[in-house]
Write a structure and sequence with these properties.
6 strands; 104 residues; alpha/beta; two-stranded antiparallel sheet
Length: 104
């Protein structure tokens, strides 16, 4: 599943993944609400997420995706330049990953 508000990025990543025999893009979203609903319903194996989505920064979106689909692995795409922003997004992914593994 791809979540990015820039069509060229979504299209490029989708084409890149289409060339992999063991990967398939199951959903492509430009806004976070629809993506979270899809993740809750479909539980994709992997979500490739823009870390600077309008209305949902990477850390917040990572937490929401983990809450509805704890087994989905997250890959953050980032153009963040501030170390604190990058660290916050990474901490959210790692913390939610730990919580997912703690559940029975």
């Amino acid at each position: 599943m791809l979540i990015d508000d820039h069509p060229p990025t979504r299209d490029g990543v989708s084409r890149l993944l289409a060339g992999q025999p063991d990967m398939r893009v199951v959903g492509s979203f430009r806004e976070s609400r629809a993506a979270v609903r899809f993740a809750a319903r479909e539980a994709p194996d992997v979500a490739v997420v823009d870390s600077t989505m309008p209305g949902a920064q990477g850390a917040d979106l990572a937490r929401r995706l983990r809450a509805v689909s704890p087994k989905t692995q997250l890959v953050l795409l980032s153009v963040l330049k501030e170390a604190a922003d990058v660290a916050g997004a990474v901490r959210a992914v790692l913390a939610s990953r730990q919580l997912a593994h703690d559940k029975p």
